[in-house]
């Protein structure tokens, strides 16, 4: 319990990307409790999450909560019982076209990865939800969403479940075949919820 709290303090104090010139201002976001058994790994927090000091504060968070409810979890589960983390912890800012969030660079992800590995090691979650292509590839290697959504991997008694990114920017879910793959993924999650009393 204390170890997670100490790790979160270290993450909050991190300014590595600012010191390396990757970010104008580092402001790391952390959220989660040592008792959480479901972890969500996203790409990076957006400006809304940083402003609210709460990951998944925007529409993506609402959609993800709805997906959890489709798997049988109660309202509020996402922010009250899920450890919310990401490949990098600071807002990378807008992309070059100013239309969406910039993808964190490999260098930024490499600087931040030890924090994520430490969280996984300390928390040992039952289930890890990998949100979107970047988070999926960080754990499974290069894969097409079509091939990986609906599947999962078990590693050291933790289930890693890939999910599409819930933000409205992704058009992948517009295809009904892809919706069926999402249903398959949520069915795995629903089974683990019952089996492990999540
Ligand atoms: S993104 Fe990660 S490594 Fe970079 S400054 Fe923020 S917490 Fe530190």
Question: What does this entry look like structurally?
Answer:
With 198 residues, the protein is of the alpha/beta class. The chain has one domain (2-195): Uracil-DNA Glycosylase, subunit E, CATH 3.40.470. The protein contains nine helices and five strands. The protein has helices spanning 2-12, 16-19, 47-52, 59-70, 77-81, 106-123, 132-140, 145-148, 176-195, and strands at 38-42, 82-86, 127-131, 153-155, 158-163. Strands 2-1-3-5-4 form a five-stranded mixed β-sheet. β4 and β5 (158-163) form a beta hairpin. α1 (2-12) runs antiparallel to α6 (106-123). Residues 11, 14-17, 26, 28, 88-90, 108, 111-112 line the site of iron/sulfur cluster (SF4).
What is the gist of this entry?
A hairpin with a 2-residue loop joins strand 4 and strand 5 (158-163). This protein has a five-stranded mixed beta sheet.
**Rg computed from alpha carbons, rounded to a whole number of angstroms:** 16 Å
- The counted number of beta strands is 5
Class inferred from helices and paired strands? alpha/beta
Can you give the helix content as a percent range?
40-55%
The CATH topology corresponds to Uracil-DNA Glycosylase, subunit E
**CATH class designation:** Alpha Beta
Bound molecules: iron/sulfur cluster
Gap from first CA to last CA = 19 Å
CATH architecture title = 3-Layer(aba) Sandwich
Mean pLDDT: 94
Which H/E pattern describes the elements? HHEHHHEHEHHEEH
């Amino acid at each position: 319990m204390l170890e997670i709290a100490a790790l979160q303090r270290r993450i909050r104090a991190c300014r590595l990307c600012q010191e390396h010139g990757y970010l104008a201002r580092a402001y790391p976001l952390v959220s989660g409790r040592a008792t959480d058994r479901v972890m969500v790994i996203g790409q990076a927090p957006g400006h809304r999450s940083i402003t609210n000091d709460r990951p998944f504060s925007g529409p993506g968070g609402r959609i993800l909560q709805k997906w959890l409810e489709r798997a049988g979890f109660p309202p509020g589960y996402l922010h009250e019982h899920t450890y919310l983390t990401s490949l990098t912890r600071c807002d990378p800012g807008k992309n070059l076209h100013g239309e969406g969030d910039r993808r964190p660079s490999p260098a930024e992800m490499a600087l931040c990865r030890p924090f994520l590995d430490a969280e996984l090691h300390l928390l040992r979650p039952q289930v890890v939800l990998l949100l979107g292509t970047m988070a999926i590839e960080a754990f499974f290697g290069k894969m097409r969403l079509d091939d990986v959504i609906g599947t999962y991997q078990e590693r050291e008694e933790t289930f890693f479940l890939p999910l599409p990114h819930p933000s409205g920017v992704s058009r992948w879910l517009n295809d009904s075949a892809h919706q069926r793959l999402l249903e398959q993924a949520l069915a795995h999650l629903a089974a683990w919820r019952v089996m492990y009393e999540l």
